[in-house]
Design a protein that fits this description.
about 260 residues; alpha/beta; 3-stranded mixed beta sheet; binds coenzyme A
């Protein structure tokens, strides 16, 4: 397993740490694979009752690795990124997240699938897919309008505007705002609180809460995947990724 994803199981909690700080925890294909494998194993491991996903107190994740987008990565349903999205969207045990600093792209969209989210007061959420010539994934095109309301979702998804911890708390994307140095510990404490509860009741309650729109979420993810894969190979994405690499502003005026 890559060292850019650390896993640790203690007292019923599997803690998954994004550990690629020099690249702001941007997630590579290998990292998606490692997280997906860890979550698949956790589903059937009786020693794991709850999973906690965390980054660093300065950054949660810069989203998908842009170098990987350029290659381009495998884009089928069985690709590591979509395998990760599928497992997180269907994960039967409680998922807790601690988020500090930037949470870009999938760094934000994965949170729609977490049950409890604790944010540092420096957390900044953004889904700049359009700015990269792409479209949302992880059913964010369904779940963001539901959670934020259509117009705030349009601000986040069409304009690609970031929103801060307070706004995330107001719409219910996060449960609590804490000092960044405490976020991982606060989330760990919540995860441990869950881990001593009866697991079958937890899983059944989560299943019942999610059941109403599980199929809708999976269908939306399948639709997004088709669009995302097409756009990934398109000229706007090419321009956006080139601009990111060259540290310049992209020019979409001729597209
Ligand atoms: N993919 C690949 N490399 C990335 C990356 C990503 N998603 N995000 C950051 N990096 C790299 C930077 O290119 C930089 O590399 P360098 O040191 O060789 O110049 C390094 O990580 C540090 O990033 P930097 O931008 O200097 O850090 P920052 O603290 O000023 O800003 C972010 C942090 C997350 C706000 C900023 O890096 C960012 O916006 N990244 C791109 C996010 C993005 O568009 N992701 C895709 C979403 S779908």
């Amino acid at each position: 397993m890559t060292t850019e994803i650390l896993t640790h199981v203690e007292r019923g909690v599997m803690t998954l740490t994004l550990n690629r700080l020099d690249r702001k925890n941007a997630i590579t294909t290998a990292m998606y694979s490692a997280i997906a494998d860890a979550l698949m194993a956790a589903q059937v491991d009786a020693a794991v009752r709850v999973v906690l996903v965390q980054g660093h107190e300065t950054v949660f994740s810069a989203g998908n690795d842009i170098g990987d987008f350029i290659k381009p990565p495998p884009a089928g349903a069985e690709s590591p990124a979509f395998r990760f999205l599928h497992v997180i969207a269907t994960f039967p045990k409680p998922l807790v997240a601690a988020v500090c600093g930037p949470a870009v792209g999938v760094g934000t969209t994965m949170l729609f699938h977490c049950d409890l989210v604790y944010a540092g007061d420096n957390a900044a959420f953004s889904m700049p897919f359009v700015n990269l010539g792409l479209c949302p994934e992880a059913a964010a095109s369904l779940l963001a309008p539901q959670m934020l309301g259509y117009h705030r979702a349009a601000e986040a998804l069409l304009l690609g505007e970031p929103f801060m911890a307070e706004a995330a708390l107001e719409v219910g994307l996060v449960n609590r705002i804490v000092p960044p140095t405490e976020a991982n510990a606060v989330a760990q404490a919540a995860a441990r609180k869950l881990a001593v509860k009866p697991i079958e009741s937890l899983m059944e309650t989560k299943r019942l809460m999610k059941k109403g729109q599980q199929q809708l979420v999976l269908q939306q993810m399948a639709d997004e995947r088709v669009s995302f894969s097409r756009l990934l190979a398109g000229p706007a994405a090419k321009e956006a990724f080139g601009a990111f690499m060259d540290k310049r502003t992209p020019d979409f005026s001729k597209l």
